[in-house]
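Please review the protein record below. Let me know how this chain folds according to its tokens.
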Amino acid sequence: MSKVATRFAPSPTGPLHIGGVRTALFNWLFSKNNKGTFHLRIEDTDKERSKKEYHDQIIKSLNWIGIKHDGDEYIQSKNIDTHVKVANELLKSGNAYKCYCSTEEIEEQKKRSRQKKIPYVYNRKWRNINEANAPKDIKPVIRFKSKIDGTSILKDLVQGDVEIENNTIEDFVILRNDGTPTYNLSASVDDHNMNITHVIRGDDHKINTFKQIQIHTAMNWKLPSYAHIPLIHTIGGKKLSKRDKASTLDDYSNIGIMPDALRNYLLRLGWSYKDKEIFTLDESIKHFNLEGIGKSPSKLDLSRILSMNEHYIKSIEEKELFTQLTKYCENYKKKIPSEKEDKIKSSLVFLKNKAKTLDDIYNNSKYIIQDKISFNEEDVKLLDNKAKKIISEFSNNISKIEKLNKETLEPIINDLIKSNETNFKGVGQPLRIVLTGSKYGPGIYDIITSLGKDEVQKRLGSKIIQ
């Protein structure tokens, strides 16, 4: 048996979609599980729509989620001459023919199909016409001579046997009239030349697979095995598209989803192993197989992604969490000042409480990161005379103690609750507002001890409560 080789073959004509990332992940895991190779093929033959920014985004996205390809990137456009050569071989062997239909003729055929409400299939007009009768003013396309009779069966590694009537596959174009190859020709040639053993991709490619199998067979090439993964749908059940929110990895990294959490979520999106939910990278490679992929579409659920991310925030080492937080702040917020790093590190134990994203941790940390806090105007309105009296009394009391910790603060807070005939919230909320700018945030003891006595006294003297 040949060494397993898989490939991920995105087109740089738009941002890499979350469904594409899952396809890349499944290919990568399958190859690693089988001690094979995983290749990245950039299908950039659509010169008008292919852009460097999309190419760069594809690479950045795969790197971010931890998918590394083997060997160099395979750039499809560099191999066009090989694709054209194969098209001419198919022409020479009688497996393809020149089609001289004008653009107007093809449009008329498509129009008639629309009127009849049936899928357009080219009418094979030039399949058996002698080329001597060809018009001189039309540059021909080259069409593959598809099977007309009988049926074909695709032995799909996910979907099982898929049968199709051969006459439903048109004589598809393999070479345009400008001499450029089409997707099905280029993909077939590249899969052969790259010795790809398994083609794992979305099940919207099934019809392409039947076409590509015919090209392989006509060229007497060994067929790869094919596996078609059900597509990802929105929570409402519609096919996920690039226009949907949260459809690219940037959308997730932007809100502070961590790579390992999203990779774990995508692994479980349409694949299962026993009743296991959380997989380390090594476990993902060890257990991944095609048998575990379901046959029905999966729904992308942001609440499940947030839940998975929260699990990772709680379970990873705080040193690693701090590294992730600093990267997130550098990319999407502001760099954490070096003099604040130790304070953030020592406070992570409570800053991560109830946080579902790195953004939540950042927001919980802002009162430490920013020297000058910004106040929520609605929350400031809660600082009535009674609240200001509590803040003033608290300030006087802590000036008399050397070290602020829960043991020294608790008696002061309890006395304030009693003397002001209030409850814990009645004391904690005004203090939180004046110390952080908001009534929301970490617990009041954590806020005070993380800031330290000098900073607490400085903030308690804020003009906001004068």
